[in-house]
Amino acid sequence: MTMGWLNGYVALVTGGGSGIGRAVVKRYIAEGCTGVGVMVRSQEQADSLVAEFGDQVVTSLGDVRSGADNQKAVEATLRRFGKLDTLVGNAGVWDFFTRLEKMSLDELDKSFDEIFGVNVKGYVLAARAAAEALRESKGSMIFTLSNSAFYAGGGGPLYVASKHAGLGLIKQLAYEFAPDVRVNGVAPGGTVTPLRGPESLGKGERRLSEIPNFQENVANSMPLKMIAQPEDHAGHYVLLASRDNSRATTATVIQSDGGWEIRPMR
Q1: Quick one: how far is CA 165 from the chain centroid?
Q2: Hey, is 140 helix, strand or coil?
Q3: 208-224: b or e for each residue (b if 16 or more CB lie within 10 Å)?
Q4: ω into 264 cis (within 30 of 0)
Q5: Which candidate, 48, 89, 43, places its Cα nearest to that of 65?
Q6: 8 Å CB contact between 132 and 83
Q7: Active-site choice (9, 123, 159, 237)
Q8: CA atoms of 29 and 58, how far apart (whole Å)
């Protein structure tokens, strides 16, 4: 049996088909998870996960903006693995720095609903769907935020506001779920990940990692002079999920952003 920080745990990861979510799935299994439920958007992602991890994962297709789909993912995980120790809310959408005045009122109306729907409502619904199982296991919730939860300039107003909302959500849920369930977050900075744009702005097929010179520009702006890969953040999710190692930690967000706060270097 694999021995790790999460030996015998069961987790559910939303948006776990690619990028940071998939890196967390892989790391959780390496750390000894009995199984991981993964909520994905496409059958292609589901098939890819099963091909890599076999019966260590159970996939569920759905939209994180749907309460029924979140419930389905929780139920699939409980049915296959019998319990739930950790929820990782991770699905997200980015706005490609779209400024307020670059959007018409109609675009703004639709984009607000899409970006807040995925980045905030999706987390709220996942938390509600998993609440009973996590109270029973005295487990934890972990939500993916961004350096945009703390600073301006990492996106347009809709994305930055949605990530600030996520920070408030973590604190409030930690308050409501104490002492039974710990609620924390991880805030990555620029990362090589296929984070998609909003369909409401015609950018649903665009990916963060496809921006020209993205990797070089991010690395040059970081005090650590690097751009992160998804797996560079995964250890934080292990630490926060582990009862042995984070028993006294709730309402906390680990910033994994290359030192964004201390820019610029002199």
Answers
A1: 14
A2: strand
A3: beeeeeeeeebeebbee
A4: yes
A5: 89
A6: no
A7: 159
A8: 12
Give how far Cα 56 sits from Cα of 39, 107, 182, Å.
14, 41, 25
Q: Three-state SS for 183?
A: strand
CB 104 within 8 A of CB 206: no
b or e along 131-149 (b: 16 or more beta carbons within 10 Å of the residue's beta carbon)?
bebbeebebbbbbbbbbbb
pLDDT digits (tens, 9 = 90+) for 132-183: 999 999 999 999 999 999 999 999 999 999 999 999 999 999 999 999 999 9
Q: Is 159 a catalytic residue?
A: yes
Dmax over Cα atoms in the chain, in whole Å? 56
Contact status, residue 208 vs residue 214, Cβ threshold 8 Å:
yes
Six token digits for residue 260: 């964004």
Strand partners, 36: 11, 57
For 265, which DSSP code? P
84: closest CA among 22, 39, 146, 17? 39
Average pLDDT of every residue of the chain:
93
What would the two tokens of residue 243 be? 């009862």
pLDDT in tens, 45-67: 999 999 999 999 999 999 999 99
